Amino acid sequence: MRCDTLWHNAQLITLDTADGGLGEVRDGAIAACDGRIVHAGPLSSLPAGLEVANRIDCGGRWISPGLIDCHTHLVYAGNRANEFEQRLQGVSYADIAKAGGGIVSTVRATRAADDDALIAATLPRLDAMLAEGVTTIEIKSGYGLTLDDELKQLRVARHLGELRAVEVAPTFLGAHAVPPGAEAQAYIDQVCTQMIPAVAAQGLAEAVDVFCEHIAFSLAQAEQVFTAAKAYGLQVKIHAEQLSNQHGAALAARFGALSADHIEHLDDDGIAAMAAAGTVAVLLPGAFYFTRDTLVPPIAALRAAGVPLALATDSNPGTSPLTSPLLAMNMAATLFRMTVTECIAGFTREAARALGRFDRVGRLRAGLDCNLAIWDIDAPADLVYRIGFNPLHARVWRGQ
Ligand code: DI6
Ligand code: FE
Fold it and tell me: What are the DSSP calls for 145-204, one per residue?
């Protein structure tokens, strides 16, 4: 057997364990062939007679799977620093939204930008993610809110994956906000009868998301969106129970959703429904922090029920202008009391699960894509413990 590259003299965080742990391996090695892992484990168990084209001595550094950010709104124009300043004066996020600011102000800027301008605006954010070891990123539309502008955002998301060595998982979030001048139900009808069919026909998204909230769309409207998405063979996910309990997570579970995200206001019935359906909980500590939320998601109950816990940045201009998965891990530990293992798994194995990619990325295991983050750290906990420090030594995407 031959392999293209062997990374050796490394310590591994494989996340490939039955008990949900980190799967640490001392004196480990990873071998890759044609972009896939062919061996991940102790150097001593490397297949005998392996021919290696390229050997990389990692100097004792730690290797984890490349990080996966499973919930971002990365593609948009403009920024909302002005609203941030208003909020410092005491104006609430909901009040800003009711006054025509909030999401709608980003919609104006995003509609005015062409593909090139959107790419130029987004690349620095994407590069910040890559600099911290991200190798797979979900990107939602939702700042266009017309068919053409939503397609534009999704096209840009796809193009970003061609410009950089990263896999983009595109999600259609037409049901993010009611566009200015529109009526919610008429707009949702348009999302379901025109936008979802067009997005599906062009293959521009693999999933459909909906913001189910009193300032956005109702439970019945979310159900309508899910029904349309399923009819076109798209997966579903939801922004649920962020500001209030609309029972969106239970609805998502009923539709076999990939994930229910935010879920600060989730109740016991919602937890039971998610556990029964295997719906991943995507926790977004950046939004919790930035909006100064005080209701922590029910982590202990989710954990007890066996709901998979993923983490993401929710990178967006309004509630989480965050492009650092490492900082999100620290926030999850500090604000949500998640363990180091949960934080690292949340940005790797569990994030892969939330993107329907559990069998392809997120662990160091033979057969999976060779996506690696190589870290200058003394122990895995350093990734979660430090604030504002980036110990990434190297990043590998599909073996390169
Ligand atoms: N929930 C959020 O926190 C973001 N979107 C959503 O559905 C906010 C997006 C924004 O304010 O621009
Ligand atoms: Fe979001």
Answer: -SHHHHHHHHHHHHHHHHHTTSEEEEEEEEETSPPTT--HHHHHHHIIIIIHHHHHHTT-
Tokens 């559990």 belong to 358
Distance from the CA of 319 to the center of ligand 1, in angstroms?
6
Q: Residue 27 has what pLDDT?
A: 97
Q: What is the pLDDT of residues 175-202, one digit of tens each?
A: 999 999 999 999 999 999 999 999 999 9
Distances (CA, A) of 312 to 6, 137, 330, 348: 30, 10, 12, 10
Calculate how far, in angstroms, residue 216's C-alpha sits from the geometric centre of ligand 1. 10
Relative to the alpha carbon of 79, which ligand is closest? 1
Which DSSP letter does residue 73 get? -
Tell me which ligand sits closest to the C-alpha of residue 248. Answer: 1
Minimal-distance CA residue to ligand 1 atom 6: 211
Apex 175 CA angle, 229 and 240, nearest 5: 90
CA-closest residue to ligand 1 atom 7: 211
State the angle between helix axes of 103-112 and 147-163 in degrees (0 to 180), rounded to the nearest 10.
70
Provide, rounded to the nearest whole percent, the portion of the chain with pLDDT above 70. 100
Q: What is the DSSP letter of 120?
A: H
Q: How many CB atoms lie within 10 A of CB 43?
A: 16
Q: Which ligand is nearest to the CA of 288?
A: 1
- Does residue 101 surpass a pLDDT of 90? no
- Going by their DSSP bridges, the two strands 24-33 and 36-42 should be labelled as antiparallel
CB 216 within 8 A of CB 167: no
Which residues neighbour ligand 2 (ion) by CB within 5 Å? 314
The alpha carbon of 24 and the centre of ligand 2 are apart by a number of angstroms equal to 32
Residue 36 backbone phi and psi in degrees, to 5? -110, 155
Kindly report the number of other CB atoms within 10 A of residue 85's CB atom: 10
* Residue nearest ligand 1's atom 4 by CA: 319
Provide the pLDDT for residue 29: 98
Q: Tell me: pLDDT of 112 over 80.
A: yes
- Rounded distance between C-alpha atoms, residue 129 and residue 137, angstroms: 9
Atom 11 (ligand 1): residue with closest C-alpha? 318
